[in-house]
């Protein structure tokens, strides 16, 4: 069992290397829920770690981490780009703590909103975020950068797996 798994804190640089594998393990839950369809492949590990190093913030829970959240800045808002919790550690409130940690980080850093993209009908995606105060945005409400991310998701094939939705929580 990871220590302090409910405590959300910034990732240490040396922890970034383990996070792509954590993401892959967590995504197995999505793959199982979506009926075994595969998700678009993750970038190669070294590339994925370099990409994490460019995030506005990477928050983790646990030591070693059992969950992480990656935050980017999109259109002047904090954008929760990735949220992953190891299957062995789910349903203990860690995902909730990470989302709350992201919102706290965003508020402390002067952002007015947190945005994200997720599967509309997966119970641990849009309904989970809705319980944490996120509201669905329709296409007309999407900023140009968010609309570009949605188009990229379509190009990657994500929408073929299930309807996707953009969500926002005002802070
Ligand atoms: C989404 C995710 C981070 C949630 O992590 P978590 O630590 O389980 O989150 P919490 O324990 O705070 O709450 C999870 C809630 O999601 C719902 N949920 C989770 N798994 C579920 C399932 N298999 N069936 C139905 N509801 C489920 C429940 O409402 C649950 O709360 P509950 O246990 O109190 O009923 C984790 O499931 C994960 O990594 N999933 C794979 C990757 C993913 O989908 N990321 C988000 C993409 S935007």
Describe this structure in words.
The protein is of the alpha+beta class and 171 residues long. It has one domain (3-170): Gcn5-related N-acetyltransferase (GNAT) (Aminopeptidase), CATH 3.40.630.30. The chain is 34% helix and 29% strand. Strands 1-2-3-4-5-7-6 form a seven-stranded mixed beta sheet. The structure holds coenzyme A. Coenzyme A binds next to helix 1, strand 4 and helix 3.
As residue ranges, the low-confidence spans are none
What's the average pLDDT? Answer: 93
Give me the side-by-side strand order of the main sheet.
1-2-3-4-5-7-6
The top level CATH class name: Alpha Beta
List the ions, cofactors and other small molecules found in this model.
Answer: coenzyme A
Provide a count of the helices: 5
The succession of helices and strands, N to C, reads EHHEEEHEHEHE
Distance between the termini: 33 Å
Coarse morphology: globular
DSSP helix fraction = 25-40%
Question: What's a quick, concise take on this entry?
Answer:
This protein has 171 residues and is α+β, with helices and mostly antiparallel strands.
Chart the SSEs and their pairings:
Elements: E1 3-10, H1 19-33, H2 45-53, E2 57-63, E3 67-74, E4 77-85, H3 94-108, E5 113-119, H4 126-131, E6 135-137, H5 144-156, E7 164-170
Parallel strand pairs: 4-5
Antiparallel strand pairs: 1-2, 2-3, 3-4, 5-7, 6-7
The chain binds coenzyme A.
Residues 26-27, 29-30, 83-85, 90-96, 118, 123-125, 128 line the site of coenzyme A (COA).
